[in-house]
Amino acid sequence: MDRRTLITSGTVALAGVAATSARASSSKTPAEAPALSIPGVGLPVIADGRLRNYVFVSLKLHIGGGKTVEQMRPKEAFFRDALVKAAHRTPFTVAGDWTRLDENRMSAALVAAANAISGRGSVARAEIIAQNPRLRAGMTPGV
Prior knowledge:
The chain is an alpha+beta fold. About 40% of the residues lie in helices and about 30% in strands.
């Protein structure tokens, strides 16, 4: 066997193994639903009628209703604006904790706003990825 035949047969064998492993890995993991990431939205923590802190929230909108990420990306600014307005109107503050916000109320407000912004059912759910408070120390309620 000459060197060229050996190299060619080795390359063909490696390509077959790579294709088989790619097919196996794609069949094991289901396709993830499309989602739009919205990083770093600053929301207020309001307690007793006073601004106490800011929490920067990163979230992911799980898209539904036949929409694509490309259709939803231009509306990201509208989602941010709706979330900030909702946070000022009815704060998502957790009683006794000025370093985090209520995730369930935030998600519900964002899904409700998404119905008006991009159509009913366009956002299946909103997932809060991270909450980072501006101030971490000295957060004592009642002061």
